[in-house]
Amino acid sequence: MKNYLIYVISAIVLSLLLIFVLVVPAYQRLNKTNEKVFAKQATLQSQKDYFEELQNIADKLEGKEETFAKMETALPKGHNIANLMNFFQKSASKSGILIQNISPSFVSSTKSKKIHASQVNLKINGDYKSFKKFLSIVENSSRLIEIENINFQNEKEEGEETFSFNISTKVYYR
């Protein structure tokens, strides 16, 4: 009976030894692997949420191409002085005034240096009503134009009141 007791005790000790040598390290590796899997799942879920949010934003922006086109015309790329002069000339002819002189000059850029400005001085002749119409056309244009200063003189010509206007504008571009 003593031998059986030794066999039982040695079997129990051997079982405990096998558990601590083989099972416990495998269990610890499994726990670490599970932690990694949960971390990867959390990362994957956050990326899915991020891409869904980006898709929602893209869907919202999809219908606004017209707005972006208007923004593109408000701040065009580059300093295209010919288009600007053409715009002023067409605006003057629509309103019935005469441009006598256009003098563009470069103004230093803003702090961000992403938006630049150009100053354009105009000397125009015409009546007050035509001048108001010209200002309305300029201010309602899609182009970002700021009128900084207006000076005028009254010039009487054969019973008709005409004015000579000096306008200082600032035109913005990217």
Task: Describe what is shown at a glance.
With 174 residues, this protein is α+β, with helices and mostly antiparallel strands. It is built from 4 helices and 4 strands; from the N terminus they run αααββαββ. 56% of the residues lie in helices and 28% in strands.
List keywords for this structure.
four-stranded antiparallel β-sheet, alpha+beta, 2 domains, 56% helix, single chain, Alpha-Beta Plaits, 174 residues
Q: Low-confidence stretches at least 5 residues in length (pLDDT < 50)? A: none
* Helix segment tally: 4
The termini sit apart by 99 Å
Q: Main sheet: which strands, in order across?
A: 1-2-4-3
Let me know the CATH homologous superfamily of the largest domain: Ribosomal protein S6/Translation elongation factor EF1B
The number of distinct structural domains comes to: 2
Q: What overall geometry do the principal axes of the alpha carbons give?
A: rod-shaped
CATH fold topology of the largest domain: Alpha-Beta Plaits
How many strand elements?
4
Structural class: alpha+beta
What is the CATH level 1 assignment of the largest domain?
Alpha Beta
State the CATH architecture of the largest domain.
Answer: 2-Layer Sandwich
The percent range for strand residues is 25-35%
Tell me the helix content. Answer: 55-70%
User: Largest sheet, described in full?
Assistant: 4 strands, antiparallel
Q: What Rg is obtained from the alpha carbons, in whole angstroms?
A: 39 Å
Topology order in helix (H) and strand (E) letters: HHHEEHEE
Mean pLDDT: 83
